[in-house]
Amino acid sequence: MDLLKKKILEEGQVYAGNILKVDCFLNHQIDCTFLAEVGKEFHRLYQNEGVNKILTIEASGIAIGAIVAQEFGCPLVFAKKNKTKNIAGDVYTAPVESFTHGTTYNIMVSKKFLNPGDKVLIVDDFLAIGNALNGLISLVKESGAELVGCGTVIEKGYQHGGDKLRAKGIRVESLAIIESMDADKGEIVFRD
User: Fold this and answer.
1) How far is Cα 189 from Cα 134, in angstroms, rounded to an integer?
2) Which of 3-17, 35-49, 86-100, 178-192 is predicted least confidently?
3) Which 8-state DSSP code applies to residue 114?
4) Cα 133 from chain centroid (whole Å)
5) Which of 76, 75, 74 shows the shortest CA–CA distance to 62?
6) Where is the Phosphoribosyltransferase domain (predicted)?
7) Is position 101 within any domain?
8) Contact, 183 vs 9, CB < 8 A?
9) Using one digit for the tens of pLDDT, what is the confidence trace for 167-177?
């Protein structure tokens, strides 16, 4: 998606440790007009798959998921990272190790929101080594729903999470795949 690549190059910042900050438009301050284009692109890619649920993880995936769900005219379900008093009844759970935070936590979704017969599209802001997506995929499998595929806004191709998921036969569509980044030079190279 050329618009996304342009936005990353103009507004993104590369930091040591393979960190790409795009918090000025994607996951802290959100450019809603731009995000609408992201939603349209995911809809274009998956429009013929019968998607009836969008699944993401809190917190950064929620804005993206809401826009994508609006495009599909279906509900957004987001996995919570902590059990709260408002999650009543049984839940599906899966452990997820956070690359960004360096911790492991259990994600959960109420069993009433994912069911056999659902056709689920998972969306998230980043794909690095794939831990968040693997956790969400586990929830879909546990529920008996059908995984249509995964959509990520930005994939760090050099960390191979997307390659591993694709090798398992999972459809992964990333709107921009970064092949390499150099914090010293501030350079970003995209995969063609």
Assistant:
1) 26
2) 86-100
3) S
4) 7
5) 76
6) 46-158
7) yes
8) no
9) 999 999 999 99
Q: What is the CATH number of the domain that holds 139?
A: 3.40.50.2020
Residues of the binding site for 5-phospho-alpha-D-ribose 1-diphosphate: 128-132
Residue 87: which pLDDT band, with cuts at 50, 70 and 90? low
Residue 47 has a pLDDT of 98
Contact 154, 178 (CB under 8 A): yes
Is the bond into 59 cis (omega within 30 degrees of 0)?
yes
Distance CA 94, CA 130 (A): 14
Domain membership flag for residue 20: no
d(CA 12, CA 35): 15
The total number of structural domains in the chain stands at 1
Average pLDDT of 88-115? 87
Q: Which helix (H) or strand (E) holds 61?
A: helix 60-72
* Confidence at residue 83, expressed as pLDDT on a 0 to 100 scale: 67
- DSSP character string of 118-140: -EEEEEEEEESSSHHHHHHHHHH
CA distance 128 to 48: 27
Would 13 be classed as within a structural domain?
A: no
Q: What is the pLDDT of residue 100?
A: 65
Structure tokens at 175: 């709107």
Residues in the annotated binding site: 20, 27, 128-132, 156
Domain coverage including residue 96: 36-177
Q: Annotated binding site for xanthine: which residue ranges?
A: 20, 27, 156
